[in-house]
């Protein structure tokens, strides 16, 4: 069997397995974070979580497929390991960058929601006060 094909098979198995594992981990643990971002709206949190997972799969598996081809023929077991490790390293960096991007965007939403909650007074206003003009000292004093 051609060693290039062996490298392709190893790369696909490991990268797809890593993508599925990361997506499940992010989905399971990100649901709690989304619940906070979306003010406890569980149905919306589940829907957004599902959409994020689908997008995660599409982007990562698309990248894995595009990054599949080898630069040249692989002729030794050493070259198999080198090619697979280089490709998996890039896939892992892309997975990490996408994860950090998602967390950054969701954290922005969470902060905005927290600021909106802080602007609402805890007790309804009970009356109005008059605004007194500041006193100005006389000239030359």
Q: Can you describe what's shown?
A:
The chain is elongated and about 95 Å long. The longest helix has 43 residues, at 77-119. It contains 3 helices and no strands. 73% of the residues lie in helices and 0% in strands. The mean pLDDT is 83. α1 runs antiparallel to α2 and α1 runs parallel beside α3 (77-119). The termini are far apart. It has helices at residues 3-37, 42-66, 77-119. The chain is mainly alpha-helical and 141 residues long.
Strand content is under 5%
Topology order in helix (H) and strand (E) letters = HHH
Helicity range:
over 70%
Low-pLDDT sequence parts: none
Q: How many DSSP H or I helices? A: 3
Shape: elongated
Q: Tell me the number of strands.
A: 0
Indicate the multimeric state: single chain
Please summarize the sheet with the most strands: none
CA radius of gyration is: 27 Å
Q: What are the defining features of this structure?
A:
elongated, mainly alpha, 3 helices, 73% helix, 141 residues
Layout of helices and strands:
Layout: H1 3-37, H2 42-66, H3 77-119
Quick structural overview:
With 141 residues, this protein is mostly helical. The chain has helices at residues 3-37, 42-66, 77-119. The model has no long low-confidence stretch (mean pLDDT 83).
